[in-house]
Design brief:
- Helix content is 65%, strand content 6%.
- Strand 3, helix 19 (410-416) and strand 4 form a beta-alpha-beta unit.
- The strands form two sheets. Strands 4-3-5-7-6 form a five-stranded mixed β-sheet, covered by helices on one side. Strands 1-2 form a two-stranded antiparallel sheet.
- By secondary structure, the protein is mainly α.
- The protein has two domains: 2-382, no CATH class; 387-475.
- It is built from 21 helices and seven strands.
- Helix 5 (85-110) runs parallel beside helix 8.
Length: 478
């Protein structure tokens, strides 16, 4: 209920200027083009319109940096609920809720219900999960599939039933259609299988050819819809993210810098309390390394594999702090384990239970205080909305614009895509549009692209207007 409350309270808000607003608009554009042009006609390519309304022609380019899954899921949301901000965000809420369930079930299967409750507590109240509440991105959706793959792996190991192995493969395959990062779960389950059985289980090795197959299919799809140009684009962005291109080297990324970056982000998005508990968890694991710690090894491997993803694709993590979300499956579980171990430590032996409860209570309260401070900063940083976007989110009339908008202004394009848009920079074109299209109710001028004085005087003398920071909107009363 707490998760649903903070996920839904601002779900209808217009798209913000911050990254969550940008990326929601970005993948929403690909999704709406699936519906506008048709899934078959687009060949499931993620298309964005880079054309100019001045020429009256739409020009579509293919986005190849990520697989198609996120755009598909958002398009299903639009198909069911209509073209709204909340319809896109509801997709992320659904998958985040699934992540809560998987984290809870993993912890319960490996340990017990009490530790699972602690894990869900740390997950739901973490600043990271709050940030993810409306972050419609492949990265955030990937956490669901990574957690789901690990859960069905745990079930398969425990009960050795074919259906759990089938669900494991199904969850993994679906995840590879969403994001490349899901492939990093393969070394987790293969290495853990080795530790668990003292040899690698042959069935689990099937994940390797399946991962190669799915990667190849994604590459083939890119070639199918965009040819060598798309493959070249993907190659360039991979070099950039791997910090191997000349452009990426300009960021001056070093291992020391990455570690400092990681330490800062960990404390900000997960709080110093969870950092402290995770360090204790690592020390506990090292101290007992000679023992067979099958359950703890799974958490360690998950953390190391996803950490390697961040450090291998160092440039993209350097730019986007929030990508520390990839270690999410390991952090609340490790924290929950250590809370239970602290409660049962020898320090409290012989003392009334109330003492251990007080210590744990102080620990959890401190976590909530740190979390609250980060959440307030996250909310303030992500809630700034352009005045023109607030206006367009409430006024649904068709519009005439007089400017060329940058194709990557996805927030503004989100609200223009939901209506008919016309282009005019002279009185003759303007009057022609007005006489032939009944639902046209707005004219928008951009300050950086001013109209000629004659047309501007005509608008000012005939129509009421409202001035925004970068735009002027005229109300076209007929």
């Amino acid at each position: 209920m707490i998760f649903l409350t903070y996920s839904l309270f601002d779900i209808k808000e217009p798209l913000s200027n911050a990254h969550p607003g940008f990326i929601t608009g970005q993948y929403s554009e690909y999704a709406i083009n699936y519906l506008k042009l048709g899934y078959l006609k687009t060949k499931l390519a993620q298309l964005w319109n880079t054309g100019s309304l001045e020429t009256g022609k739409e020009k579509y380019e293919v986005y190849v940096h990520r697989p198609i899954g996120t755009s598909l899921f958002i398009s299903f949301g639009f198909l069911i609920f209509g073209y709204h901000e909340w319809a896109a965000r509801l997709v992320q809420v659904f998958f985040n809720f699934g992540t809560i369930i998987f984290i809870s079930l993993i912890t319960k299967e490996l340990w017990n219900k009490k530790i699972a409750v602690y894990a869900v507590f740390f997950l739901v109240f973490s600043p990271m999960f709050f940030y993810m509440r409306n972050l419609i991105s492949p990265d955030a959706l990937a956490i669901f599939f990574i957690s789901g793959t690990i859960y069905f792996y745990v079930k398969w190991l425990k009960y050795e039933k074919k259906k759990f192995f089938f669900f494991l493969i199904l969850m993994f395959v679906a995840g590879t259609i969403v994001d490349w990062s899901v492939n990093f779960v393969v070394p987790v389950i293969i290495l853990h299988s080795f530790f668990f059985h003292k040899k690698i289980n042959r069935k689990i090795l099937l994940t390797i050819p399946i991962a190669i197959l799915m990667f190849s299919l994604n590459i083939f799809h890119i070639f199918l819809v965009s040819g060598n140009l798309g493959l070249s684009d993907l190659y360039k962005i991979m070099l950039f993210r791997l910090n191997l291109s000349e452009e990426s080297k300009g960021y001056g990324i070093t291992l020391t810098g990455l570690l400092q970056h990681f330490y800062r982000d960990f404390n900000y998005f997960y709080t110093p309390v969870l950092f402290f508990l995770f360090v204790l968890f690592l020390l506990f694991f090292i101290k007992n390394a000679r023992k067979v710690m099958r359950k703890e090894i799974l958490i360690i491997l998950t953390f190391l594999s996803m950490l390697s993803y961040l450090f291998i694709f160092s440039n993209i993590y350097w730019i986007h702090d929030f990508l520390i979300l990839f270690i999410l499956p390991a952090i609340p579980i490790s924290g929950a384990i250590m809370v239970e171990k602290i409660k049962n430590t020898k320090i409290f032996k012989g003392l009334p239970k109330i003492f251990s409860y007080i210590v744990i209570g102080i620990l959890l309260l401190t976590f909530l205080i740190y979390s609250y401070n980060s959440i307030i900063k996250i909310y303030k940083g992500n809630s700034e909305i352009s005045d023109i976007i607030v206006f367009l989110s409430k006024n649904k009339k068709d519009v005439i614009i007089s400017f060329w908008e940058h194709p990557q202004n996805f927030q503004l394009k989100f609200y223009l895509e939901s209506r008919k848009v016309y282009y005019a920079r002279d009185i003759e074109t303007f009057e022609k549009i007005m006489n032939t299209h009944e639902n046209v109710g707005l004219f928008i001028e951009k300050e950086s692209e001013p109209l000629d004085q004659k047309f501007k005087d005509y608008l000012v003398n005939n129509f009421p207007s409202i001035k925004f920071e970068k735009y002027t909107v005229f109300f076209l009363e007929k």
